[in-house]
Amino acid sequence: MRSRSLRRTLLPLLAALVLAACHNKDEATQVGGSTPEAAVQGSIDLLKAGDFNGLWKHVLPAADYATLRTDWSRHNANRPPVSATDKARFNAAVQKLTGPDAETKLYAEVRPKLDQMQQQYKDQLPVLVAMGGAFLKNNVAQNQTLDSEQKAQADSLVDVLTPWAQQAPWFDQARAKQAVGVLVATARKLDLKSPEQLRSMDFDTAMTQYASGYAGLKQALAIYGLSVDDALASTRLSTVSNQNGRAVVKIDYTLLGKPLSAETTLVQQDGRWYSESLVDNVRKAHEQLQQPATTGSASAH
What we know:
Layout: H1 2-29, H2 36-49, H3 52-59, H4 62-72, H5 84-98, H6 102-121, H7 125-142, H8 148-167, H9 173-190, H10 195-200, H11 203-223, H12 228-233, E1 236-243, E2 246-255, E3 258-269, E4 272-275, H13 276-300
Antiparallel strand pairs: 1-2, 2-3, 3-4
Helix pairs in contact: 2-3, 4-13, 5-6, 6-9, 7-8, 9-11
């Protein structure tokens, strides 16, 4: 009797846990989100994983994702060929980063330059960084595509990053050696053979390369005290508004020990929620790609 009673208690609980786990997995892998917050959380999870293909698939309706993939290879179709000079520079850089014993050779080249830069710029660095921060804020203020809320968010981000950049141990030799190792390992993983290869990459290959570059960038920033993973792990979401198929979600997070927040707008389509700005960007880019063909066909008639 006792075991039967235990089964009656545990089985519904286990079923609920399984359903909850399946639901969470569903939110992480499906296109869009079942709620605005689920859509944003799914994007954050995919960004944590460095899954850029999955991220685009998540933030865009299926038709727009298909458009993005189709348009990808068309962006570079009309660009002029790579010059011999640029090709030579590319090949030299790749060889330096991926050749035999590249870490040792590159660090041997960097080490005396770091010593020289420390002597020349150590006292000036805080001022130079402050000037750079002011320059960024000025560009944000003049940007016509950002609204007042987005400009305030960007200014807050600059205010947090500026003190970090002023105090980061940029001239530390041990950290520089680690950073060189990350740079070389990332370059080898990317395995770039030519500048033409960059232009001819299909969407899937490009997303894989982005993931490798992103992982390397995170490692390099962490060496100097900025953890992207910690910032992503600190996110807390709340819905600001949700009406008529349009919602605003607030993202609170911590960066370098400082609380920050941002807002993102989502739109509902066929019962799922997607990033409004990214959907708009993909559609506008597609329209721009169509214009030359339309103009050409019109002039032909």
